[in-house]
Amino acid sequence: MYFKRIEMHGFKSFAEPVTIEFHRGITCVVGPNGSGKSNISDAIRWVLGEQSPKMLRGGKMEEVIFSGTANRKSRGMAEVTLVIDNEEGILPIDYNEVAITRRMFRSGESEYSINNNQCRLRDIRELIMDTGIGVDGYSLIGQGKISDIVSNKTESRREIFEEAAGIVMYRTKKAESERKLSSTSANLERVNDIIGEIE
Ligand code: ATP
């Protein structure tokens, strides 16, 4: 599995549609200061569901939309598509190529899709869970992450190992089942109360 390409339109400094092709192995992005290199990794983080503007080096999420320059109008929407090679079937979906898209409008509305089928953010999270490419995964390593790993925060370190070991999905499903179980028990108690009253 590897990132094949990223398509950006209206995202940060990428006012016009831009496609960057990646290949297997290492891709190096070089350019002058302020030319938009980090905006590419921000776009990857964003399309994979990042919800914190701070993680995208901004104050508000709306700041990911191209804000205009002296000779170019601002845009009303940011759109990023990340195309992932899934020949090895690591992503649990029956496609050899998976395109994850996120759109955001100035109204604050966000849309997500997988291979052009509109979906929820939760579907994207589940798709990439335990593959290491999620926003909490270990494939996007920012400066903060390195200090997390070397710091004495055992919880942070544990999260990274759990993601690598592929158990986050099971932990999430277990928590979900426990929530359902406790709400079912509460319902059952209520039903028993009603039965008691009737009898
Ligand atoms: P450095 O080498 O200094 O780290 P860089 O190549 O990583 O720089 P980025 O930080 O990716 O550069 O890009 C910064 C540029 O993106 C700035 O010129 C900034 O004005 C522009 N930019 C960021 N957000 C927006 C936006 N919403 N609209 C327009 N331009 C934006």
From TrEMBL:
ATP binds at P32, N33, G34, S35, G36, K37, S38, N39. It is found in: Cytoplasm. It comes from the Bacteria. Homodimer. Required for chromosome condensation and partitioning. Belongs to the SMC family. Contains large globular domains required for ATP hydrolysis at each terminus and a third globular domain forming a flexible hinge near the middle of the molecule. These domains are separated by coiled-coil structures. This is Chromosome partition protein Smc. It comes from Anaerovorax odorimutans. The gene is smc. The chain holds residues 1 to 199 of 1181 of the full protein.
